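Session log. Operator J.P. requested a structure for one protein chain; no other inputs attached. Running the standard single-chain path with token output.
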Amino acid sequence: MFFEGLPPFAADMSPQGYMGRSFTTRYPELDVPRRIADWNDDHRLIALASRGEDCTGNLIIGDQSLNRFLAQSPLPAHPGDYPELARSSMSGQPGSSPGGEQPKFATYAEGRPVLVKFSGDDESAAARRWRDLLVCESLALEAVRAAGVPAAAARALYVDGRRFLEVERFDRIGARGRRALLSLGAIDDEYFGHRDNWTKAAQRLLAEQLIEPEDARNMRWLDTFGQLIGNSDRHFGNLSFFVEDDDRLRLAPVYDMLPMLFAPVESDIIERRFEPAPPTADNLDVWSHAARCAAAYWDRLVDSSELSGEFRERCLRCREAVQELASRVPELLP
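Structure written below.
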């Protein structure tokens, strides 16, 4: 099989996001451009073949990366180690390169590979907001699982002034095993080239018989639920698929599901209005259930003692907005 440029799996594996930005600082011997935004496909292949032993998915490219993987053993960590791992992460210490801009590090904790997001340890408005949002993410993933849709296992922890969100890696099996994984972005780029929204992507994938009807429905449900909880970051890197033995795609657990509408922009808090969207012809069959789950989620946040009083008041207004919208479509949401 031939591709124009990197194959989809290699594009997903390439350094990106928060953990990718320090790549060239950590490995200056590779002689690639300092900013990964300036890389071409040759630079990405150099990085993957030289320092690609812990990338997303199940593949390792190149002898150097394979030899490094075979020689390494996971170093167990405990939540008490997380503050130091966070400090190391912020100073550009080595780690894997899953995407996403939220500060994070990868480690092996209590018998499972995890990605750990973290807030600041100061009392700035941005640090306080991220402490709230990481709790929101943990509870959102619980709400998704309770609705019968696959979601990553996660837990929020508070250690030495930082909030940590520990998310189990579903592309790993135990200490050494791996699972084939592709992002929705890589798949859509290869087959369609649209990157519009999860609902439209689900319809395209189903029409081409690349996924099962249940996964298409779950994608549309997640898109609807995400909008109703203020997740403004429903991009094509935040849904992934397992690649089965027969090359069929199966929806992987969702991750990065939280009210990103309220996320800080660097150190600034931007006040944004939450406006839940009514049902459309594309999500009419899932909107009612997603709206009930969203209302219950906002209720859970309002009652959470882990959230600040200011943010709980915001959640109360969001719940009221969902309930007011639901009252205008009573035939869909009793």
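Operator note: The longest helix spans residues 125-146.
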